Amino acid sequence: MTLLIMVLALLALLALRVPVGVALIVPSLVYILVDPTATLALAAQQATSGVFDFAILAVPMFILLGNLANISGATDRLYDAAVAAIGHVRGSLGYVNILTSFGFSWISGAAISDAAAMGRIQVPAMVRRGYSPGFSLGVTGASSLIAPMMPPSIPAIIYAVTAGVSVGALFMAGIVPALVLVVALSLMVWFLTRGREDLRLEKASRRERVRLGVRALPPVGAAVVILGGILSGIFTPTEASAVGVAYIAILAACYGNLGWEKVRYALATSVETVGGVLIIVAGAALFGWVLAREQAPQVAADLILQITDRPLVFLILANILLLIVGAVLEPTSAILILAPVLVPVAEAFGLSPIHFGTMMIFNLMIGLLTPPVGLVLFVLSSVTKHPVTTVIRGTVPFFVPMLVTLLLIAFIPMLSLWLPGLLGMV
Amino acid sequence: MSEQTPGPAQPAEPEGTAGASTSAGAPAAEAEDYSFRQDRLEQNSALYRWIIRIERSVAGVFLVGVFVLVLTQVVSRYVFSSPFSWTEELARVVMVWLTFLAALFVSSRRAHITVDLLATVVPPRVSRAVSAFAELVVIATAAVMSIAGIAMVVLVSGVSLPATGLPTTLLYGAAVVGFAGIFIHSILALYLQIRHPEDELDPVMKAAELEGI
Amino acid sequence: SLMQPVDISGFAAEAPDPDATVVRLANVYEPGHPANTCGTATMREELAQDGIDLKVYPAAQLGGEPEIIEQVATGALDIGISGGSFFGAWYPDAEVVDGAFLVDNSREYDRATRGPLLTRLYDDMAEETGLRVFSSWYYGARNVTANKPVRSPEDLRGLKIRTPDAALYLETIRALGGTATPMALSEVYLGLQQGAIDAQENPIPTIASNKFEEVQSTVSITRHMVQGVQLVTSENFMEGLSEGERTAVLEAADAARLANLKCIEDEEREILEQWRAEGTIEIVEDIDAEAFRQGVKENLLPAKEWGDLYLEVQEEIAADTPTVVGTDPEDSPVFADGKTEDES
Ligand code: NA
Ligand code: NA
Known about the structure:
Oligomer: heterotrimer
Number of helices of chain C: 12
Helix content of chain B: 55-70%
Order of helices and strands of chain C: EHEHEHHEHEHEHEHEHHEHH
Bound molecules: sodium ion
Largest sheet of chain C: 9 strands, mixed
Shape of chain C: globular
Order of helices and strands of chain B: HHHHHH
Number of domains of chain B: 1
Strand content of chain B: under 5%
Largest sheet of chain B: none
Number of strands of chain B: 0
Helix content of chain C: 40-55%
Number of helices of chain B: 6
């Protein structure tokens, strides 16, 4: 009941153009003021603790990385090279978008980091070359979900610790589903751009491709430095975001693009995005605390158990529940609240907690693209300056490949279990 | 809600499922503009101009601070035999301040993220009333949250953070400052909205401008 | 097989008694951790008989340890569970229970926290802060995992050990000779796998539930911190309860304390037995504990205002002083099956 009222209030406030962060705070404040055992101070505590979190540090860092990459000229070099390489393919920038996210996913452990870094870089470049803003935003948003599916993955770590399964096994379990997502998104790009000969660029000469490829090597080096650094243990995935910023800043200096005016501009634009996004993270933390305190997701999970004793029906209902919860809760809170309730039940139904975890994570990641609390939507809107409604509209077609991928993950356990099994981890 | 730092200008492209017109060649050269747009208050008051400038700079310094601290953590692990134990917690404290300072700066730009579900379907007069209502909600919320912040600061007075030993009041003080700032900026925004509605872009126009139509 | 019905009756939600008094308890441990499966579960069952509905929020659902304590202080949360050192921020002497090598084993820990000295400490803390610690549950003995045996301070030299992000843990590891690196628990697995850190230290159940044995070659049974967690409430909450309810809460916590003690002792033993049988990870037991103790005495205690209290508590245990609160394990039916752990 509380869940329903809170979500309806949130939707109403959003419709009345109340900023998302405040719209999350208002129903929570009302709850706290009405409940005789809750005290007002908690509102400040929860909003603050939402951003007093080490993993969240990657968000401002990747936002800054995206802006520095733009002023440094690194973005242009990457784009010129990628376009020279496969620009003659119809809809090429759609594929480039998915593939860069795929590459970035080995560096980034969170979808919002990918959306912040890639959105700033990719969307304007695509729009400039004739792709609609909706399509550009949609493919960027959908492909940002590759990051938390591929290792390293922040939600995978949180699920593994909460459900008591191997982090390594869960990491491995995400690789094949991430590849399925890459293929499914690429097929959607093919479908949406079919017959659009105008989205085919002139084929670059071999000489030109080599020249532009070499020019792009230093920016590509960022991925090598970050991934290499993580794999060799020099820094953790969260720390990697700051190392990436340092690398791009050095690159900008080498290109002579680290002038005061440009740096000031990059910082100011970053601050605007950071302020807009992190205040939503703070509001979502408070909102999530109220839902957790009311045990709202548990109540919903108990309801499922009263409906069915068949694994298939359970899987379907669990997915529906997760999609709904994912729409209103930030994934970390959702995992912390739901994994303890659902995983023992899933195991009783004979499902592997690794398989269930992979499904749960992807399911909650889809929630990052659904209103009312869709952080990737807001990040994309903020970094690209396109209205949230355009982002929402743009992502609609991509729900087809995402939901197909979700169904495949849910009903073909081998997709998640084959690789960890091969490595003897399950 | 209209004042935003201008991004690179976008060429006119209508919206379609998968892009509309063609431009097979290199993108058009853009005139990069690294200056900041000013609103009516900044144009008329040197004091206010300076306040905005300070807010922007301080938030930028905190952003750089987060970066430097995380980098220090990595470097200290390799350079010093005993790495610093305070970098992680301090980075998180600085990020909390960054969040609230940046949010108050964003308030001054009227650039908080909104979901304009109704924007395109209601007449401009209703739309303006909705905006004013939203601004009032923000003002009230910011006021209550400032008070909540003060209550929290009072509660934890004398308690220190585990790694740095910094007073916990410093942590929750950020929310007080941030929401108080949002409160003030939102009152100014409401004033501008009522006295100078012509400054405000109509939401449809705003969407069009951003999408380069 | 997905269409076959399955018996899931064990998971059906218990219908809450609508008239029951709701008491909220939050902690940061996983639902599968003994503190919840044995501790809070027992407390919940006991209280249900007294018409109290204990709502348990595990896994930091309502926040981390500092936030849980703050919520108890505001009155929004009735009971919180937190490690001893987190109370140090509110009342410095409360840190003493996390002093390295304060006690040798679970039973000494259980006795010490119910002894006259620590009972008085918690009374004083309640008077000064309004925060009332009313039960102490054994959590486990912390041991070091690494990719080499750690038998003496010499072996720790130059080893980057992850510790929780709290000053006392950092100071303890430094006093023991290691290079302390604070890191969030969620980043430790990767940090160990990739070598950002060389080692970490935790009780055996925590090591097992985080799967650190997958990414470390050796666990050295250093038992450098024999540790517990404290149940905290506010004086306001206790005063707001009826006499009967207050007794019910205290008795339920006592029964839960014993159930938790038994489960953790069992789990610490069983996990080690399993690792040994399966050769999962090398277990090193010939530890030079005296050398580590020396490090604590010389490098840690002099810097702490509870240094004297630490020594007094040790004297109290040595003198076999009778406890003043709670049931002794030997008198409890939980331990009646005679399989009690003889730790030495
Ligand atoms: Na992408
Ligand atoms: Na990843």
